[in-house]
Design a protein that fits this description.
The protein has helices spanning about 10-20, 50-65, 70-85, 105-115, 130-135, 145-150, 160, 165-180, 190-195, 235-240, 240-255, 270-275, 295-300, 310-320, 335-345, 345-365, 365-380; strands at about 1-5, 25-30, 45, 90-95, 120-125, 180-185, 200-205, 225-230, 260-265, 280-285, 305-310, 325-330. By secondary structure, it is of the alpha/beta class. The strands form 2 sheets. Strands 3-2-1-4-5-6-7 form a 7-stranded parallel sheet, with helices on both faces. It starts with a strand and ends with a helix. Helices cover about 45% and strands about 15% of the residues. The protein is globular and about 60 Å long.
Length: about 375
């Protein structure tokens, strides 16, 4: 099949492409590379308004005429690139807002997409209308919206998420629900809202694909210090709960400075990020989740002991024992500290979880096996 993957988050479409290509398909990724993370793409559609002066010009034009020059540039790049492509058997969008322009431009672009394919699929692997509606109603016991629900003064930090509930985005959502062949979720944090929606085109959960042929298992070596890595994306710190990790680490350093080594980084490109965490034993991912993010899964594939979401719904879905594959954390400094302290004092447990984590990724997230599940959905719907 000839497949177009539009948009990229956390390398999901790159890993899926690798699996689909291994199965004999022709795959193209059109995306912006997910900001500072700079993931590889086949057709790059970033805007060029990055310098100080160009940002000022863009802001002035928007203020005077309500024209978003960056969004317009991305739309034109994407439209030209699409026009130069022959038709696709399948097009898959990473999100309801796949090229990140404006709702009206996204609608125009999606009309062009529909002229290039008879099969359009939508991924829910980040916020969209259904997930936002679920979270803003405070249905899960916690979510990436928890900090905002506790303190609405954080509104500016959540503009990107909250925009999905506005009328223009609801219109975009309704259009996609009508036109797409189906919606696929990538983990429990998106699966649970879609189950509640009773959407008749919901095709179910397919776990994130991880290319284990590119990610080698790194057997952990116990040294005199347990190495802990905490990589912070400052734009997402409230959504991921990084402060809980930082506070727990401060307590741990005060008591066990001779037993631990802590590395904290901010806003690293993907290539640098993975190099730095390669030597760690423990990786702190996110607090506000029922399931793991993509960086967590890649770290688990390497054998790191990951602190992330692994709630009861996740344990039931995969039929695994609590804290056997990774450490489930909640927004509670004491709980995180206690888990860290236990591992520092019982380092042999680190080795056990490390091996279990790799085995789990091989069983549930193997990129070729996951890609086969996508192919089955494409052929059946």
């Amino acid at each position: 099949m000839r497949i177009l993957l539009v948009g990229e988050y956390s390398r999901l479409h790159n890993s899926l492409k690798e699996g689909l290509v291994a199965l004999g398909n022709e795959v193209t990724i059109m995306a912006g590379g997910d900001g500072f993370k700079k993931y590889p793409v086949d057709i790059e559609i970033n805007h060029s308004y990055n310098s100080w002066i160009l940002k000022k010009i863009k802001a002035l034009i928007y203020k005077l005429f309500k024209i978003d020059l960056a969004a317009l540039e991305i739309y034109r790049k994407a439209s030209r690139a699409l026009a130069n492509q022959s038709n696709f058997d399948v097009v898959q969008l990473i999100n309801e807002f796949p090229i990140k322009t404006t709702p009206s431009l996204e609608l125009k672009f999606l009309q062009k997409i529909l002229n290039k394919t008879e099969k359009l699929y939508l991924l829910s692997c980040g916020v969209d209308y259904v997930c936002m509606d679920y979270m803003i109603k405070d249905i899960p016991k916690y979510s990436l919206m928890s900090a905002y629900l506790k303190d609405p003064k954080l509104h500016n930090k959540y503009k990107f998420q909250l925009q999905y509930l506005t009328p223009p985005f609801k219109k975009l959502h309704d259009f996609l629900w009508d036109k797409c062949n189906g919606v696929i979720t990538s983990d429990l944090d998106y699966h649970l809202p879609y189950l509640r929606s009773n959407y008749n085109k919901y095709l179910g959960l397919i776990p994130n694909p991880i290319n284990i042929d590119k990610i080698n298992y790194i057997p952990l070596k116990l040294t005199d210090k347990v190495k802990i890595f905490h990589g912070i994306n400052t734009e997402a710190t409230h959504k991921k709960g990084n402060q809980y990790f930082s506070d727990a680490l401060s307590l741990l350093k005060a008591k066990y400075s001779s037993k631990i080594e802590v590395i904290e980084t901010k806003n690293l490109p993907y290539s640098q990020y993975i190099k730095i965490y390669n030597e760690c034993h423990i990786l702190l991912d996110q607090v506000y989740g029922y399931d793991q993010g993509y960086n967590a899964l890649e770290a688990m594939a390497k054998g790191k002991v990951v602190f992330s979401g692994a709630e009861q719904e996740w344990l039931d879905y995969y039929k695994v024992a609590e804290n056997s594959i990774l450490i489930n954390v909640i927004p509670n400094v004491e709980q995180i500290y206690n888990h860290l302290e236990f591992l520092v004092l019982n380092p042999e447990r680190i080795l056990e979880i490390s091996k279990n984590a790799r085995s789990f990724i091989e069983k549930e997230h193997h990129y070729i096996e996951v890609s086969k599940k996508y192919i089955s959905k494409y052929l059946a719907n």
